[in-house]
Amino acid sequence: MALLLVVLAANLGIAARLYISGTFGQAFFVVTRLWLLGFPLGWFLFIDQGRITWRLPSRRDFTSGLMLGVLMAGVISIAYLSIGKHWLDASIIRAAAETVRLAEPWAYIAFGLYFTFINALIEEYVWRWFVYQKCAVLLDGKLAVYVAALCFTLHHIIALAGYTSNTLVTVIGSTGVFIAGATWSWCFLRYQSLWACYLSHALADLAIALIGWDLLFRS
Questions:
Q1: Can you say how many angstroms the Cα of residue 202 is from the centroid of all Cα atoms in its chain?
Q2: Cα separation of 17 and 111, whole Å?
Q3: 44 is a domain residue
Q4: What digits encode the pLDDT tens for the residues 131-175?
Q5: How far is residue 45's CA from residue 157's CA, in Å, rounded to a whole number?
Q6: pTM over 0.90
Q7: Does residue 99 fall inside a structural domain?
Q8: Is residue 22 assigned to a domain?
């Protein structure tokens, strides 16, 4: 039930933002974002009767996250410069950005900062801390890594299809998201900490945000 309620909210929210015009689509998207923020914590505290713990990142967390993040950002950047830049239609991406009010530089910079530092943290909280751990209750730890990665990938498929309108880019991008999701779930399984996952995720998202800037304002 917990997995279903999270995965459905993520997918329906991004679909509403991209495919339902007007205030309702945007409002529904915001409601689902708030749900994704509050539901996992509420379930953990009141259903699982869990206790929140906190610790600073260790040197191993920082080193692992930095190395993995630099590797991911490098792969993303090379894939874009060598292949993606020729496959992506900047005009389609600009049109999609205008739909969600990100076509102005100041708006995109604000979004890029949120996307890199805040959204990466939220996604790790939702998809690794909550969804992966719920998958691990039902499945063997290694199998849970891949099921959690699949759950993480589904709403990215909708987003990639909506923003690029390119089937090949959507397939390749979704494959990359799945691999990244499985890697971060494996990191959480290994280190039992979100710090390495978050740092590497933020660096990967920074590379994606810079690619978006290039497509919107330099192409």
A1: 10
A2: 15
A3: no
A4: 999 999 999 878 999 999 999 999 999 999 988 888 988 999 999
A5: 31
A6: yes
A7: yes
A8: no
